[in-house]
Amino acid sequence: MTLVRWTPFQATRMHDRWNRLFDDFFGNGLSDEEMQRVWRPRVDVTENEHEVRVLADLPGIRKDDVSITLENGVLTINGERKVEEEKKDTNVHFSERYYGRFSRSFTIGETIQQDKIEASFKDGVLTVVLPKAEQAKPKKIEIEAA
Predict the structure, then answer these.
(1) In terms of C-beta distances under 8 Å and separation of at least 24 residues, what long-range contacts does 133-139 make, across chains too?
(2) In this structure, how many other beta carbons lie within 10 angstroms of the beta carbon of residue 77?
(3) Each residue of 18-47: pLDDT tens digit?
């Protein structure tokens, strides 16, 4: 029997190889160039008994380049990250940031007080607070003694 030394980095490399294999086989059909034009900002949606809160990471985007709509119970965030001007005397060696238009939509299953929706934008994070209407809040039902 031969002992083989296990290294955690070797296991990680194997995991990456399997991921690449499945990505190539079940790929989305987009080339690397097309993938650079398609992006979706990361979003968290949380809820408590009073509100639904949506937080979207939008670094490098101006507030004026983002719009929010709520229609038929669907919250939609649209926007665009514009390409920075390239300087003529600068060579780009590596670029992973995504540019272009994006759209994210979420079905909000609760009745929302539309006139009290608030949105703020700070440090590249968009926060949308959707207060629930009274009829959507859970109600405790008291049990009477017989």
Answers:
(1) 135/111, 136/110, 136/111, 136/112, 137/49, 137/50, 138/49
(2) 21
(3) 666 666 665 555 555 555 456 789 999 999
The residues spanned by each domain of the chain are 41-85+92-136
> Per CATH, is 41-85+92-136 categorized as 1.10.3720.10?
no
pTM of the model: 0.66
Q: Which spans in 2-87 are helix H?
A: 8-25, 32-37
Instruction: Round to whole Å and give the CA distance between 90 and 111.
Output: 52
Can you tell me the distance from the alpha carbon of 136 to that of 50, in angstroms, rounded to the nearest whole number?
A: 9
Q: How far is CA 104 from the centre of its chain?
A: 7
Using left for φ > 0, alpha for ψ between -120 and 50, and beta otherwise, residue 50 falls in alpha
pLDDT tens digits, one per residue of 54-105 = 999 999 899 999 999 999 889 999 999 888 777 778 887 877 778 889 999 9
Q: Quick one: pLDDT at residue 111? A: 84
Query: With contact defined as beta carbons under 8 Å apart, do 107 and 74 qualify?
Result: yes
Among 85, 132, 105, which Cα is nearest to 41's?
105
